[in-house]
Amino acid sequence: MSKIKIMPCLDMKNGRVVKGINFVNLKDAGDPVENAIFYQSEGADELAMLDIAATLENRKTRLEWVKNVADVISIPLTVGGGISSLDDIHLTLSAGAAKVSMNSAAVKNPSLVEKAVNDFGSERITVAVDARRNSSIPSGFELVVSGGTKPVGQDAVEWARRCQDLGAGAILPTSMDGDGTLAGYDIEFTKAISDAVALPVIASGGAGTLEHFYEGAVKGGAQILLAASVFHFRTFRIREVKEYLQSRGLEVIL
């Protein structure tokens, strides 16, 4: 197993970091620049910034947020939300992001993933796969888009496999059923994705205990563990998570 990385996530709305439960009931979680500086100093391996309202509000990611955060950190920054064209990707990377994460636009136009990989390289293209449980779907997980508001009738696991074929560099699966609940990553969903692809998988949605991080890596098969609430509200420090994982036999970057 490769070294496990820890990735705090800044969910953004109206210029502030927010955090909700099941994608709603948002609470303020501070200033993005202050959070970014703090997380890098704490030992975060990467940072995610998701403009959670961009697609719903039919607008682009706010590039000034990206630039402000990218300017104060040296760890890789992955930016998602409202990225729907090659031009959007170019502007976001130019603003300082190391990688972009696409969701709704990729589902709507899968060739965008392939074109983006050709233009910018697979290591810069992450596809976010949001899903909810649906027993009528072969894998049991239905793909949802538009910030979790629109189910599309597609199998989320099959979609992840297709994204790998299109050249994506990483998959970021988030279970709507687990998001913000602090009840643990949706291990069944994460493992279904990690079993289906050979790409790095970023576990996301629901981490609430140190054990949850361990389960995301060992039972879910994720190489990168994303979390928001437990870091924003200082339940755990990043080093605390890493030392716990190391004590359980996993390799981390201390």
Provide keyphrases for this structure.
about 35% helix, TIM Barrel, about 250 residues, single chain, 12-stranded mixed beta sheet, alpha/beta
Please describe what this structure looks like:
The chain has one domain (about 5-245): Aldolase class I (TIM Barrel), CATH 3.20.20.70. It is built from 10 helices and 12 strands. It has helices at about 30-40, 65-70, 85-95, 105-110, 110-120, 155-165, 185-195, 210-220, 230, 240-245, and strands spanning about 5-15, 15-20, 25-30, 45-50, 75-80, 100, 125-135, 140-145, 150-155, 170-175, 200-205, 225.
Note the gap between the termini: 16 Å
CATH-assigned fold name = TIM Barrel
Share of helix, binned: 25-40%
* Percent of residues in beta strands: 25-35%
Structural class: alpha/beta
Task: Give a short synopsis of this structure.
The chain has helices spanning 32-42, 63-70, 86-94, 104-108, 111-120, 156-166, 187-196, 210-218, 229-232, 238-247, and strands at residues 5-13, 16-21, 24-28, 47-51, 77-80, 99-102, 125-133, 141-145, 150-155, 170-175, 202-203, 224-227.
